[in-house]
Amino acid sequence: MSRGKKNQRVRSERGVALVEIIIAIIMLAGVILSLAAASGHAARQIYLSRRDMHLWASLQSQAESLRAVGYQGVTNGSATVDGHAVAWTVAGTDPKTVTVVLTYETRKGTSAYQTFTVYFPASDTL
Question: Where are the chain's structural domains?
Fold first, then answer.
């Protein structure tokens, strides 16, 4: 092999071509954007989980308060629990069915509801 052809081949194999660098940058940008989108989605899910946990704890708190009143004392009513409107309705006799509805405002400014049903048998003793 002549010396000229050998030098020419070595020059073409040395270094990284501009096209390869551009492709690598595009791939890296895609990975970074995917990670950013995933972290945004994860943050939203964490927020929603915390909100739902707080709402269900408020519902449970009101249900326990109603249970403490006892079978004879439970009647329709409403209250504010942790800044949320809570209303409950009582139906039936044995068992009494108490439906507790908590109203809250979503991030979009609309009202949403969480409902919890509790059954009170006449012979219930704590």
Answer: 3-120
